[in-house]
Design brief:
Length: 195
Amino acid sequence: MLGLTGGIGCGKSEAARYLASLGAAHVDADAISRALTEPGGAALPAIRREFGARVFAPDGALDRAALAEVAFANPDAKRRLEGIIHPLVWTEARREIAEADAPVVVLDVPLLFESGMDALCDETWAMSAPEEAQIARVRERDGLTETQVRARIANQMPMAERDARATHAIDSARPIEETRAELRRLYEALRSRAG
């Protein structure tokens, strides 16, 4: 099992898609989290109890932007939200891992180390990029302000710590072909070890 992580705007999702194209099974914690918070999602009752109507739209759907503003502005609120979401993500991720039919399963988790999900992994890879590249990518992708992106970066494990904890740190600031070549080399070595 491969744990794939990286800070916001570091290319983790792109790396996961590429690894899936090579034959890896992809278990996406972000997709699981989104499903848990869609209308009728298992996390919504606890989020409503914890944060109230202020993080919900008038139609009852979760207002993700409002929830993000609350969570990223207050470390205690972020911990409370993670206390709701993480156990549910763990449960669903374990189910998907058990059902995966591939020589390598990629567990794609932004907060891999913070959530403790690295304990499920044989090795971990961290996607990395300079902060200015992260900011530019996220502003273009999500339409956030620089201040909003910096707040999200500040709420994540520092890149140096994440890279030091990972089995491999992969630089995504270079041309994509070079990053893919490294990913392919590492994937093929992992696949051969997995049998």
